[in-house]
Amino acid sequence: MKKNNIKILAIESSCDETAAAVVEDGRKVLSNIISSQIDLHTIYGGVVPEIASRKHIENINLVIRDALKEANVTFDDIDAIAVTYGPGLVGALLVGVGEAKALAYGLKKPLIGVHHIKGHVFANLIEHENLKPPFVCLIVSGGHTEIAIVKDYNDFEIVAATRDDAAGEAFDKVARSVGLGYPGGPKIDRAAKLGNPFAIEFPKARVNDSKYDFSFSGVKSAVLNYQNKANMTGEKINVNDLAASFQRAVVEVLVEHTVTVAKDYNIKNVAMAGGVASNTALRSLMEGKCSEEGLKLHFPSPVYCTDNAAMIGVAAYYEYLNGNFKDLALNAVPNLEL
Ligand code: KG4
Ligand code: ZN
Predict the structure, then answer these.
(1) CA 234 to centroid of ligand 2, rounded, Å
(2) Are residues 179 and 228 in the same domain?
(3) Which pairing describes strands 80-86 and 145-152: parallel, antiparallel, or unpaired?
(4) What is the pLDDT of residue 11?
């Protein structure tokens, strides 16, 4: 089997973006098409799974057509079809998985199943040519908050996780409760820039019995209590101060634990992945702490932090090299483990 000029057509439909990309040799993104459903779900204040699935069906052939066109290739040039098969919303995942299986069968191409979070981590390889395992990666998305040690391309060890909500989920819930709306992360990020992060002291997002694990339920409840108290006393809330203070409580712990893991495991390269990795406060604090500690920090451009198919094409390349192919029995696995 050839090892160079491997072009993979990758499909991602695990949540509310329908995406397709063509990636060459796991690093070179020839196209990256994303059809976002954010506007559609905004009126409901969050992703409605049934609507997401229906929209994926409408859009999937269009994004694939555009991905091939932008990459200036045809199906003949494609060496394998890759798809996210979990974790995510089952109905949403099924649209991508069904499409990928149909293409693989019809075109007689190998089929590769990709773990969504592995894709997020490998998004770091797109723009950082010199980044190679081992590295420590903070994974912060709407459904995940973990610290992984990427020992090799196919060898991940999860050393920290959240005991309750994911970081992005906490951002989304707090944003909704203070009336900033959906999607919460970018809205809190923006509001926080106008606020004082030291205005309110919220509890830190950590747990007592673990050096590395996270817990976001305490800080989330503290924000809700703060709001209820203000409502009862008729006190006006400064939303920008609240956003900035909440964000500080979350971001400081994310940075502290990631740097601790890198030092404890003596790994010099640090990366960040997932939607929350585009948070400006997280990026700047992580940058500062890493440079203080002599660590090298990497993070993807915002377009590769949130859901996209290019990252799936990157992760798929390493499955391809390992000969790790799926057959037509491939199914969506909503709670797929890493
Ligand atoms: O990785 P992603 O696109 O989807 C999942 O796999 O979950 O992450 C989406 C999450 C949402 O919770 C969103 O609010 C959050 O990432 N997010 C942010 C920012 N941009 C997106 N959180 C904080 N600050 C941001 N700038
Ligand atoms: Zn994601």
Answers:
(1) 39
(2) yes
(3) unpaired
(4) 98
